């Protein structure tokens, strides 16, 4: 018997096939990197469509980035043709924006709501912190923003947080007030921040089951990629979507101090039955977003939450050569509390990993550029090469060399285009038109370009708006009533007129459809008539020329948008721009080398990968050192980087690095030490650099391990006792290979029964202490399960 989807199974291994054809309620695919999780998800969608078990409109697939969504859609279309139109394949955020656009009016927002990115939220919080003089309590805008975001990811709001906070603590009280202020300001501005997009959708579904039912009826198949990185709010959203259609009486629900009663309960006719089928795929070794509230338990407890779920394990890796996989396995096996799984490949060992230590980050970058060039000459396309780093600021040295060497490159994600001030200004003009309630946008542009409107006038406008019960935008239209001088009145009236004209163009009141070019034309009008462009043009600041180009680039983006979305409005345009998240880029990277952070690299693959800055304090990053589970998460991040490589992997570092305005001596990352020595071909090892006394020149064929005085002045700190370290590591060739430890617990008194905390492994109880002096060993039973022997003198442990 042949099935209509038979050809979709060609080339798949038996576990992969099983995952494609399984037709139960809940399916969990857990597997290591490169084992075909995303491929299986794609084929599964194709199979559902091809067999006519599902209409495209019944499918909701969630990916981690817009880029991944685009690729998945393309692949499904290749497999089943145009019938794939109508599917929702998107990120959590994009899916929620679509839902909220339709439903926002249910709960006090309008369809034209603005999306605040993290810079916008920061600006708002900064103002609120200032108003409440909260810095006196040690509440910086960054800290407040971080805490609010974390709470929102746990679906807490100001009230629910206040109920369990210590309100006797004045700092806590102020924080709760700020949280409440912030939420009210967002609501007043008809805006959602990034976390709200998810959290408010969950709130909407819970408060209005009937609304939720619309989506439950629609999406019969929900599929989630990179499931290990979902946080509590995203998890709740999946839960809401896959519930059976409502059959119970909804409880009244409290939010922001209001009681919400569900206005209209379902008739009960369609109630009950099964919820949507749910497929999730993930790899707990690649969980790298705990700092954003991602909860690895979502994957480990899937079977409990979805009883009867089928679990499929994929084992074979189809991406990388065995040498790369062996390095990845060796590194990740140092993480405690994980299911042991070993990636293997049928493709043979492949090339050795290449190691290189530069004297400085420039030397390191130079090496990368030369290797890129060499690879290119052997026929590897630029688009098949990627350079990763831990922090965005590391890209600059690479960029400088790439520009000089004429290597075409592309920075993926990060603080580029859309975070530039002039782009934010231009977008704020559009927001002021699209969503007049958005006071922040108006405050941003009111004096850009300079119109002589200062804080005093801005406050006069705000006061007037408040007294009259009108919006800030409407207050602008009453310049003469504001009690400001005639010059100021004229400046305000002029801005008001420009905004009004742009509104007529982009959002005609007559109800007629704006022409496709309205956004681009409106933006041009705003930039010209506001004087913004002229101000840049006339400036003597050389950077303003580049800024002008950026504004023009944005107008070009708007024209491109019009071509792709002939009916798209300014509101759609702003949503699209806001969702070009920090992991995405507008253009594709064909024909150029991709530069990106390790976080952005998730899910991608390249023939050749360079991981740069493989140093202590970078990877693992120093901010992780004091966080519970921090070093383990950094190891997973490094593992993600290593497993992106198909054929060639380069690990590079620099002995000195200029950072934060200082030059510091860098130490090789502990992760290098975890890689078996025979896998790495060191073109220049840390020992070589030191033995030459730090000369700037680079000897390409320097022989590794040629003596020297050790690694430098600073000492390495690592989290595993030497007893646990692999016998032979990639750093074996370095002189003084066992690094001295920064930590010395030699004096720590420990006995059976004591409790300790380990930086990586968490808390545990001492079972016994053996040995003497510097060789005392604690036998610790960790709460997470498992017994470890730790050399007390050096283990990163504290007594609790
Ligand atoms: P990650 O964890 O990094 O997201 P993944 O598990 O999603 O990885 P995929 O990206 O789906 O893995 O697959 C990795 C590579 O292996 C892709 O190039 C894919 O085309 C290829 N691949 C997957 N399954 C097979 C197969 N059965 N035969 C040949 N190639 C395969
Ligand atoms: Mg994948």
UniProtKB/TrEMBL annotation:
Residues 683-735 are annotated as: Disordered. InterPro entries: DExx_box_DNA_helicase_dom_sf, DNA_helicase_UvrD-like_C, DNA_helicase_UvrD/REP, P-loop_NTPase, UvrD-like_ATP-bd. ATP binds at residues 31-38. SUPFAM superfamilies: P-loop containing nucleoside triphosphate hydrolases. Residues 322-603 form the UvrD-like helicase C-terminal domain. The keyword DNA-binding applies. Residues 10-321 form the UvrD-like helicase ATP-binding domain. This is DNA 3'-5' helicase. It comes from Microbacterium rhizosphaerae. The lineage of its organism: Bacteria, Bacillati, Actinomycetota, Actinomycetes, Micrococcales.
């Amino acid at each position: 018997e042949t099935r209509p989807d038979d050809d979709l199974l060609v080339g798949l291994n038996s576990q992969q096939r099983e995952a494609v054809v399984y037709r139960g309620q809940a399916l969990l695919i857990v597997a290591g990197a490169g084992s075909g999780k995303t491929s299986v998800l794609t084929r599964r969608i194709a199979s559902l469509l091809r067999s006519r078990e599902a209409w495209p409109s019944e499918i909701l697939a969630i990916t981690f980035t817009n880029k991944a969504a685009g690729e998945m859609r393309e692949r499904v279309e290749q497999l089943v043709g145009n019938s794939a139109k109508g599917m929702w394949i998107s990120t959590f955020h994009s899916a929620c924006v679509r839902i909220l656009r339709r439903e926002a009016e249910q709960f006090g927002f309008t369809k034209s709501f603005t999306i605040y990115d993290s810079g916008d939220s920061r600006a708002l919080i900064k103002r609120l912190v200032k108003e409440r003089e909260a810095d006196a309590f040690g509440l910086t805008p960054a800290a407040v923003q971080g805490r609010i975001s974390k709470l929102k990811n746990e679906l807490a709001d100001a009230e629910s947080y206040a109920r369990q906070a210590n309100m006797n603590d004045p700092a806590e009280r102020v924080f709760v007030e700020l949280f409440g202020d912030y939420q009210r300001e967002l609501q007043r501005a008809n805006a959602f921040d990034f976390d709200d997009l998810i959290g408010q959708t969950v709130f909407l579904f819970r408060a209005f089951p009937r609304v939720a039912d619309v989506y439950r009826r629609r999406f019969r198949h929900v599929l989630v990629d990179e499931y290990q990185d979902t946080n509590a709010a995203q998890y709740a959203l999946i839960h809401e979507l896959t519930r059976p259609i409502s059959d119970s009486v909804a409880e009244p629900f409290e939010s922001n101090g209001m009681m919400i009663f569900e206005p209209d309960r379902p008739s009960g006719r369609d109630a009950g039955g099964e919820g949507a089928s749910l497929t999730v795929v993930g790899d707990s070794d690649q969980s790298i977003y705990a700092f954003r509230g991602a909860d690895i338990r979502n994957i480990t407890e899937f079977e409990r939450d979805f009883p009867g779920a089928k679990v499929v394990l994929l084992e074979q890796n189809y991406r990388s050569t065995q040498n790369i996989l062996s390095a990845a396995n060796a590194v990740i096996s140092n993480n405690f509390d994980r299911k042991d799984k070993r990636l293997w490949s049928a493709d043979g060992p492949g090339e050795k990993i290449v190691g290189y230590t530069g004297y400085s980050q420039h030397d390191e970058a130079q090496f990368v550029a030369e290797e890129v060039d060499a690879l290119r000459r052997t026929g590897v396309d630029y688009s098949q090469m990627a350079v990763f780093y831990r922090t965005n600021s590391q890209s600059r040295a690479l960029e400088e060399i790439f520009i000089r060497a004429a290597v075409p490159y592309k920075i993926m994600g990060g603080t580029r285009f859309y975070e530039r001030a002039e782009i934010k200004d231009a977008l704020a003009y559009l927001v002021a038109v699209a969503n007049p309630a958005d006071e922040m946008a108006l405050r941003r542009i009111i004096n850009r370009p300079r119109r002589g409107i200062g804080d005093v006038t801005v406050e006069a406008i705000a006061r007037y708006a408040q007294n009259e019960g009108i919006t800030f935008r409407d207050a602008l239209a009453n310049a003469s009533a504001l009690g400001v001088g005639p010059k100021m009145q004229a400046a305000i009236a002029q801005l008001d007129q420009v905004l009004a004209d742009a509104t007529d163009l982009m959002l005609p009141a007559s109800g007629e459809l704006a022409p496709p070019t309205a956004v681009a034309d409106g933006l041009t009008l705003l930039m010209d008539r506001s004087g913004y462009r002229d101000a840049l043009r006339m400036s003597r600041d050389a950077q303003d020329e580049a800024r002008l180009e950026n504004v023009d680039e944005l107008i070009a983006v708007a024209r491109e948008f019009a071509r792709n979305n002939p009916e798209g409005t300014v509101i759609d345009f702003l949503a699209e721009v806001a969702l070009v998240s920090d992991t995405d880029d507008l253009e594709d990277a064909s024909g150029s080398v991709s530069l990106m952070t390790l976080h952005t690299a998730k899910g991608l693959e390249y023939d050749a990968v360079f991981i740069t800055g493989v140093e202590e304090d970078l990877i693992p990053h120093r901010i992780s050192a004091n966080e519970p589970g921090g070093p383990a998460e950094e190891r997973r991040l490094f593992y993600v980087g290593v497993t992106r490589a198909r054929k060639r992997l380069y690990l590079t570092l620099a002995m000195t690095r200029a950072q934060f305005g200082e030059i510091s001596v860098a130490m090789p990352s502990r992760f290098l030490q975890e890689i078996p020595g025979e896998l790495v071909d060191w073109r220049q090892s840390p020992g070589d650099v030191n033995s030459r006394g730090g000369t700037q020149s680079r000897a390409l064929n320097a022989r590794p391990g040629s003596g020297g005085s050790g690694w430098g002045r600073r000492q390495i700190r690592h989290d595993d006792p030497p007893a646990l370290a692999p016998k032979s590591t990639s750093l074996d060739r370095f002189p003084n290979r066992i690094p001295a430890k920064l930590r010395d617990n030699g004096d720590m008194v420990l006995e059976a029964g004591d409790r300790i905390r380990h930086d990586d492994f968490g808390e545990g109880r001492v079972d016994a202490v053996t040995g003497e002096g510097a060789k005392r060993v604690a036998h610790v039973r960790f709460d997470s399960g498992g017994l470890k022997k730790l050399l007390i003198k050096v283990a990163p442990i504290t007594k609790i």
